[in-house]
Amino acid sequence: MLQKINIPKIIGHRGAKGHAPENTIASFRKAKELGVTWVEFDVKETEDGVLIIMHDDELDRTTNGKGAIAKKNWAVIKELDAGSWFHSSFSNEKIPTLEETFLLLKELNMGANIEIKPCPGREERTAIAVGKAIKEKWPQELPPPLVSSFSMDSLVTVKKVYPNLIIGALFETLPDDWKKIILKVQAQTIHIDHEVVNAKMIQEMKDAGYPVLTYTVNDQKRARELFNIGVHSIFTDFPWKE
């Protein structure tokens, strides 16, 4: 039985990635300021198992640190500057933990698409930790989160940990056996690159009962085209109030 889920049309990608350093408290606050009601963000683990909001496997691109996140303890990572790379006005912005982010979402009254982004080889371990965290600490005042991943192993695992979770399957392109995959991971939504979709494909997924969410759409004209062919929601670096 599919749960009913009310997903907004516009979702801020990694917060408001085009306006503030991605996957930070500042980025989530900016998304709220711009009028969106949901944000998407990525979760991975430090060496000592702390869940943090981070996209890359390496620290280099978005912090003043270097090297693999899977080999760094939280005590090191929490001291890093995750804002200056974007703009000096965000100097000393920190990498948030998943728990800190939950508290912020409660404060801002925002929903979320939580993407499990495991470091290599941690697909199950990270999924277990994320499932437990949501089960125990997700603010009950908020709508249930949508949990997605490119790792189908992570999705299968997180659903076992917390069967009530609403799952979204992430694809770069739509595989021929997508229906089989969707059933295996018990997904309720399909997330796919907007550049590969067409009206026929969208209709096929909708006819099978799956809302389609496309990433990453930074042009409002393109967003309208996608909505017109049946896309349910878009992820954007430059969120706007619909």
Write out the CATH superfamily name. Phosphatidylinositol (PI) phosphodiesterase
Main CATH class = Alpha Beta
Mean pLDDT: 96
What best-fitting shape do the alpha-carbon axes yield? globular
Q: Give Rg in angstroms.
A: 17 Å
Tell me the number of strands.
Answer: 9
Q: Unreliable runs, pLDDT <50, ≥5 residues?
A: none
- Strand arrangement across the biggest beta sheet: 1-2-4-5-6-7-8-9
Spell out the helices and strands N to C.
EHEEHHEHEHEHEHEHE
Proportion of helical residues: 25-40%
Our measurement of the CA-to-CA distance between the termini, rounded to an integer number of angstroms, reads 30 Å
Q: Which class of secondary structure composition applies to the elements?
A: alpha/beta
Total number of helices: 8
Structure notes:
- By secondary structure, the protein is of the alpha/beta class.
- The chain has eight helices and nine strands.
- It has one domain (10-58, 97-236): TIM Barrel (Alpha-Beta Barrel), CATH 3.20.20.190.
- 31% of the residues lie in helices and 19% in strands.
- Strand 4, helix 4 (123-137) and strand 5 form a beta-alpha-beta unit.
- Helix 1 packs parallel to helix 3 and helix 4 runs parallel beside helix 5.
- It comes from Silvanigrella aquatica.
- One of its GO terms (biological process) is lipid metabolic process.
- This is GP-PDE domain-containing protein.
- One of its GO terms (molecular function) is phosphoric diester hydrolase activity.
